[in-house]
Amino acid sequence: MTIRGISVGRLLLRLGALALIVWLAHLLIGWTMAETDALKSGARSMPALALLALLLVAYALLIALPFVPGAELGITLMMVEGPAIAPFIWAATLGGLALAYGVGSLLPYPALRRFLSDLGLRRAAGMIDALQPLDRAERLEFLRARLPRWLSPLAHSQRYLLLALLINLPGNSLLGGGGGILLVAGVSRLFSPVATLSTISVAVAPVPIIVYWLGAGLPLPGF
Description:
Elements: H1 3-41, H2 48-64, H3 71-81, H4 86-106, H5 109-118, H6 122-131, H7 136-145, H8 152-157, H9 159-168, H10 177-188, H11 193-203, H12 206-214
Helix pairs in contact: 1-2, 1-3, 2-4, 4-10, 4-11, 4-12, 5-6, 9-10, 9-11
């Protein structure tokens, strides 16, 4: 087989893998929304505790996927089940974002570059090429130069604050959502595991805390 034939075959395999991931994500979203509606109406297909456990796992997996608006599912579950589930939503959110960060941290640069290149994402592959040989200080500058001007000062000395702001930024789905942001944070190798987990745990806490303490008085359906 020629080199070109090998490249085309590799591209088709990776496109197939991406299509499979998108299809599975679509099925997971459909299942979670259907079961959440069933939970709300009382027409459950399994015991409530088992269903809630599966929904939390599904929610964590969706949160970890870039560009998937999994946060809406968490809010819906809190609306359906009330304040008691808020701590579990917090834990599932933390777990999903930590998973995305861990995957990004473990991705080898050469494999990621080949993957992006095979998909025709030349610009993204070029960024990986540029990032790989840089030391820590140079990577920080690389990140700062590509952020909006009002955020770039935080990249140098307050990058964990920047990470928390991006996680909670309205419309962050345009940046890849929480999962995409944490995946990039892992790929950058600029964020230590302990500090990143601490940052995520604080950044995703406000809404569950508000729901847990004030849920009964919030003007939301289901409370």
